[in-house]
Write a structure and sequence with these properties.
This protein is of the alpha/beta class. The protein is built from 25 helices and eight strands.
Length: 531
C-alpha cells in the first residue's frame, strides 16, 4: 500500500456506459485513484472508465460479488477505500466533506446516507461505504455483500461514525429496474445465497426486500416478506445497521396485508430498539392518522420531528425530510380543524423545503377560506419563491391555479409573457384564464397574435371561437372555424362547452342561473350540428 495515496474509489461494473460518467464525475478531484473491475462489458464502459483516469482490470464473472470487490481492494493503494456502484454518485453539495473526515480519524469506517430514488418516493438509509484499507478487511457474501463483519472480526472495538454525506442512487427507479430486470434477478440471487446461509439475519432482510421490490408485489410476495422479516428480527444483532429499516419494512408489509395492529406492534418493538429512528415514529404516526387517532398521530409526528432535528444537529443526516414531517403535522391539525396550528406547520414545511407545492396549496386554501385577501397570500408566498425568475413565476402560477384563484395565477402568467412574449403555450394558458374569468373580449384579442405556423394555433382558434360564442357572436365563431378548421376543431369546441357546462353544474349554479346552463347546452347542440 502506498501511504501517499489517501483515498481509493473501488468499483465493479458491467455495461454501465450510461451511468458511469456521472458517478466518476461526482468524485473527480476527491479521490486519489479509481479502481474499476470490469466483469465483461460489451459496451463502451471500459473506454469511458479509462478516459476518466481509472485503472481498469478485467475479471471473469463467477456470480460472486464479494470476490469481485475483494479483487478491487487488492489493487487499491489508498489508506481509505470508498466504494460506489455505477448508478450512484456523491451528492454535489457533499463532495468537499469526504477528505476532511479521513485526517487523524479514530473511526474504522464511516456510514454515509444513501438516498434511493424509488418509483414514487425517495428512501434513505445508512450504509458503510468508507473504511480503512487493511488486509483483514474484506467483503463477505456472494450477493448483498458486506464489509462490516470482517472489520468487526479483525477489531471487535471498531467504530463506525455516521456522517451526513449523501450518496444518490437511481438504480431502483422503475425504468432502470425494468431495463436490467433487476427485480427478478435480485430475488433469484438472494434466495440462492440464503440457501447457503439460512441463519443470516441480514440475508433474510434482503430476501424480504427483494419480495417487496417486485414490480407489483402480490399477497404471496408480501406474506413471504413478512415471514423472512420476522425471522430476521430474531437472527439479527440489535446493533445491526439495517435494524431500523428491517422494522420499517415489517410494519409496511403488515399494514399492506391488512394487519394494522401487528404493524403497530412491530413499530413499538423497533422504536424500543432504535429510539434514534425518526422514520419509525413517522410510520407509527401515519397509521394512527389513518385510524383516525389524531392526538396519537400528532404525538408520534412530534417525536419523529424531535428525533430528526437531534440527528440533524448531531451531523447524523436526516432519515426523512423535516419538510415532510411538518407537512404531515399540518395535515393532521387540519383534519382536527385546528387551522391556526395547521398553517403554522405548513409554513415550517415550506421553510424546510421551499419546493413542496402541496404545502403552499393547503396553506393557501386555509388562509383564503375565511375570505382572506389573495394579495396578502401572494406576498407571503413570494417570500419563499422568487417572482423574479421564470421558474419561480411558473411555480407560483401552478399554486394559485390549484387554489382556483385564476386572477392571481394570471398575474404570474402575464409576468412570464412580459419576459418572453413568444411563449405561445403560456399565452394559451393566459387565454384560458381570461375565458374562465369571463373576460372574453380580452381573451380574443390576446390569442389573435398566435402565429399560424405555431403548434398552438389550432388551440388558439378553438379558444377564440369559444370566447366569441360566450359573447353571443355565434356567426363570428363559426366563421373563424370555417376559415381555418375542420370537423376536429368543432369537436374540440364542443368539448369546451361540455367542460364549461360541467363546471357550472359543479359550482351548483351559484353564479349562473338555470337559463345560463340551458344556453350552454343549446350552444353545444348548435356546434355539433355545424360540425
Amino acid at each position: 500500500m502506498n501511504q501517499n495515496v489517501l483515498l481509493s474509489l473501488c468499483m465493479i461494473v458491467k455495461d454501465e456506459e450510461e451511468m458511469l460518467p456521472r458517478c466518476l464525475n461526482s468524485v473527480a478531484g476527491v479521490v486519489d485513484e479509481i479502481i474499476v473491475i470490469d466483469t465483461g462489458s460489451t459496451d463502451n464502459t471500459v473506454e469511458i472508465a479509462k478516459s476518466m483516469g481509472a485503472r481498469v482490470y478485467p475479471y471473469r464473472w463467477d456470480h460472486d460479488f464479494s470476490r469481485a470487490r475483494n479483487v478491487s481492494l487488492e489493487r487499491a493503494r489508498g489508506e481509505w477505500i470508498l466504494f460506489l456502484d455505477a448508478d450512484e454518485e456523491i451528492h454535489p453539495e457533499d463532495r468537499g466533506l469526504l477528505r476532511p473526515l479521513l485526517a487523524a480519524s479514530a473511526a474504522s469506517g464511516y456510514l454515509l446516507t444513501i438516498e434511493n430514488k424509488m418509483p414514487q418516493s425517495v428512501e434513505r438509509d445508512y450504509v458503510l461505504r468508507l473504511f480503512h484499507n487493511h488486509p483483514d478487511h474484506y467483503f463477505v457474501g456472494s450477493f448483498h455483500e458486506q464489509i462490516g463483519s470482517s472489520i468487526l472480526t479483525a477489531n471487535p472495538q471498531a467504530q463506525f461514525h455516521r456522517t451526513g454525506i449523501r450518496i444518490l442512487h437511481v438504480g431502483y427507479t422503475s425504468e432502470i429496474m425494468k431495463k436490467k430486470n433487476k427485480s427478478a434477478r435480485n430475488l433469484e440471487m438472494t434466495l440462492a445465497e440464503l440457501n447457503k446461509r439460512p441463519d443470516d439475519g441480514f440475508l433474510r432482510f434482503c430476501v424480504a426486500q427483494a419480495y417487496l421490490g417486485q414490480e407489483n408485489p402480490g399477497s404471496t410476495d408480501i406474506q413471504e416478506a413478512i415471514k423472512h422479516l420476522r425471522i430476521a428480527t430474531e437472527l439479527s444483532d440489535p446493533r445491526a445497521m439495517w435494524g431500523p429499516r428491517m422494522y420499517k419494512l415489517l410494519a409496511v408489509a403488515l399494514e399492506a396485508a391488512g394487519q394494522t395492529s401487528e404493524a403497530l406492534e412491530a413499530l413499538v418493538k423497533g422504536i424500543l430498539l432504535y429510539k434514534e429512528s425518526a422514520e419509525l415514529y413517522y410510520l407509527q404516526a401515519r397509521i394512527f392518522e389513518k385510524m383516525g387517532k389524531l392526538d396519537r398521530a400528532v404525538g408520534s409526528y412530534m417525536h419523529s420531528l424531535e428525533v430528526d432535528q437531534h440527528n440533524r444537529s448531531s451531523g447524523l443526516g436526516p432519515e426523512i425530510e423535516a419538510g415532510e414531517l411538518h407537512f404531515a403535522l399540518g395535515r393532521t391539525f387540519e383534519i382536527k380543524n385546528n387551522d391556526y396550528k395547521a398553517v403554522e406547520q405548513y409554513k415550517k414545511s415550506i421553510e424546510s423545503n421551499a419546493s413542496r407545492k402541496e404545502s403552499y396549496v393547503r396553506m393557501g386554501a386555509l388562509l383564503l377560506k375565511e375570505g382572506g385577501n389573495v394579495r396578502d397570500v401572494q406576498q407571503l408566498f413570494e417570500q419563499w419563491t422568487s417572482p423574479e425568475t421564470i421558474d419561480g413565476l411558473q411555480f407560483l402560477n401552478q399554486i394559485f391555479m390549484e387554489l382556483n384563484r385564476l386572477d392571481a395565477a394570471l398575474c404570474y402568467v402575464d409576468r412570464i409573457l412580459a419576459i418572453e412574449p413568444a411563449r405561445w403555450e403560456v399565452l394559451i394558458l393566459a387565454g384560458s384564464y381570461l375565458i374562465a374569468l369571463g373576460k372574453y373580449s380580452e381573451s380574443i384579442e390576446r390569442l389573435a397574435v398566435v402565429p399560424e405556423d405555431s403548434i398552438y394555433f389550432r388551440r388558439s382558434l378553438v379558444m377564440r371561437s369559444a370566447a366569441y360564442w360566450f359573447l353571443g357572436d355565434e356567426t363570428m365563431a363559426i366563421k373563424l372555424l370555417r376559415r381555418h378548421g375542420d370537423a376536429a376543431l368543432y369537436r374540440e369546441l364542443a368539448l369546451c362547452f361540455m367542460q364549461e357546462a360541467a363546471l357550472r353544474l359543479e359550482e351548483g349554479l351559484k353564479k349562473n342561473n338555470n337559463n345560463k346552463l340551458s344556453e350552454l347546452l343549446r350552444q353545444l347542440r348548435e356546434v355539433i350540428t355545424h360540425g
